[in-house]
Specification:
heterodimer, A: mainly beta, Immunoglobulin-like, 6-stranded mixed beta sheet, 0% helix, B: mainly beta, 4-stranded antiparallel beta sheet, 51% strand
Chain lengths: 113, 114
């Protein structure tokens, strides 16, 4: 079951904040976040495991609400380098996770000067 | 470290032709994956492997085949190319399952079937 990402696209000015959401209809064990710049490969950002953990990576952090089966990616004081498409990948809770991820359709983030 | 290397980067095929997309990794990762990416659709899993000699189907396996004879290599075979297989193909690897390890992606192969 493909997770649903929202919004589909967001445009920011440098220094503004953004939140990207990833929701699943299934119970989740882990959520991955990746960023893909145009014409390049996706790059791994972070993993969150069930338990409501919040993690941070420079000015990019994320939370995982196990009860809501939802993860949110927070980008604060955005920089031009944050532009790209952000994907969440989910692993179901069956048997403690799975060997493979199901990815959402992506959220295109554009940061303008 | 080269990471995950994919070849070729671009390819144009005629309908009915065959080709193999190559993928090799030098990180000693056990798990390897093939995804295809179509505009606005995200990444769809074609096949994956949890170790040499073990492969399994993903979400969209029809029209493709894989083999995993070594830990390093995971080629993807298209036997009879169709226009619906026009896409960008990404190979990825991870140390173990996706619960705690992130994926490392190759740079992709852009395939056009005409």
């Amino acid at each position: 079951q493909q997770p649903v990402q929202s919004p589909q696209a967001v445009i920011l000015r440098e220094g503004e904040d953004a939140v990207i959401n990833c929701s699943s209809s299934k119970a989740l064990y882990s959520v991955h976040w990746y960023r893909q710049k145009h014409g390049e490969a996706p790059v791994f950002l972070m993993i969150l495991l069930k338990g409501g953990e919040q993690k941070g990576h420079e000015k990019i952090s994320a939370s995982f609400n196990e009860k809501k089966q939802q993860s949110s990616l927070y980008l604060t004081a955005s920089q031009l380098s944050y532009s790209g498409t952000y994907f969440c990948g989910t692993s179901p809770a069956t048997q403690g996770g799975s060997e493979k991820l199901v990815f959402g359709k992506g959220t295109k983030l554009t940061v303008n000067p | 470290n080269a990471g995950v290397t994919q070849t070729p980067k671009f390819r144009i095929l005629k309908i009915g032709q065959s080709m193999t997309l190559q993928c090799t990794q030098d990180m000693n990762h056990n798990y390897m994956y093939w995804y295809r990416q179509d505009p606005g659709m995200g990444l769809k899993l074609i096949y994956y492997s949890v170790g040499a000699g073990i492969t399994d189907k993903g979400e969209v396996p029809n029209g493709y085949n894989v083999s995993r004879s070594t830990t390093e290599d995971f080629p993807l075979r298209l036997e009879l190319a169709a226009p619906s297989q026009t896409s960008v193909y990404f190979c990825a690897s991870s140390y173990s399952n996706s619960v705690i390890y992130g994926y490392t992606f190759g740079s992709g192969t852009r395939l056009t079937v005409v």
